[in-house]
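note to self: dont lose this again. the chain is below, predicted strucutre after it. 466 aa total, dont forget to put it in the shared folder this time
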Amino acid sequence: LLATSCKKEETYSFVVPSGSILVSMPGEEGTTSFDSFNIASIGVSSTPQGWEVVNINLYDGTITVKAPSSFDDKEVKEGDLSLVGYTPQGSKKSISIYLAILQNEDVDYSSSPANCYIANKPETRYIFDPYTGGNGIELATESVVLLWQTEKSLVKYLDMRDGKVSFYLDKAVSDDDSEESTNKVKEGNALIGAYDKAGKLIWSWHIWVTNGDPREETITLNGEEMMNRNLGAFTNSNGSTDGAEIFRSYGLYYQWGNKNPFVGPQRYNFPGNHDDSLYDDIDFDIYLSYEASSAKVGTLEWSNANPMTLIKGNKENDYDWLYEGHDNTLWSEDTKTDNDPCPAGWRVPSKSVFENLTIVGSYDDMAWEEAQPLYGWMLEDTATGEEHFFTAQGRRNYLDCRLDIINDDYDQPIPWSGYYWTASVDGADASALYFDLNTATRLWNGFDAARAMHRANAMPVRCVRE
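---
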């Protein structure tokens, strides 16, 4: 944020990227960094009762405060610190920093690196290692930035200090007109990017903000424990016809072998096929982009440096998003890879996990008018007789990466279709669970437990435990 005085030649700035100083207990000191240009001195305008500004270091760009040790008088556990930066010419820039003593213990993922971190506790600080990506890749991270979020102010107070990245979740606000805080998180997804010294984006991490714990809400298929919701989803609609519940069950979309998540439609029934809303770190609207695969664009390195760009299928490479060759090691049937998009302890499944599934007979026999509002099928595990609902959330197709859930076949129109990636490859393609609803005849509801799909398709993932 640059500010210009009445003198056109005077330009200055003063900003605290994290916007906060959070401490774990009373009496503890906390530090954050600030960026400034042409600021000669910094003064304190006001502090929350009981808080002390210990040091403001213009040389290394840090501000240190101390929280109150006790609350016998009017000391407060949170509040705003107001500072003013002065230029040599006397112009000034005011800023505010949120100070707080955390009410809950930190959730520290530093010893469990992954490409996805689950965050499900409000008023809690989350921590992870910025120098490790995937399943153990070393990163030369110099700074981190919130690249996108699906809800405004979802991830707050992002900071990198003392070898760790931290961010904070607030309580969600009630859906009614009271605007009162709840004991839940505001659900959504976000992506945090790592930059090196040269300012190049080198990696990113998906933050999955959801109530409940997907790691505890599981099913068993062919002997493997699987999450009962899609990666990035907030529920399993379980056959509900409520549009909101269906939409909350969709989750994110992934091109085969790529860790980068992409949002789906704005609404469950794909009106206009518009992408879901995205916001940057200051809650401004931002958008996905689409690029044709090429020698420059169609590489893993380029994709990691451009995680908001979907890469269209390359015809000469059998509609893979990669321009040359098919890398069968990006995801693995047996082990978690560095490009696996699942949380620590979980991975993309092999095709064998779906091999015993079929559409439950009573659902398959429904009139299409009754089945259409379900947006999915109840699938039966023929080995155990257990039934599990899988949502039909469509895909982003391999040709242009646009959202696709309804075909244009006049004779056999399909109002919805479902796809789920596996880590298994099928020649130039990869294997996916596939099903659809056919409105022309009850004999042609589609189902294939291992359908070959072009790798540039972006589709949902259900994670299995390692």
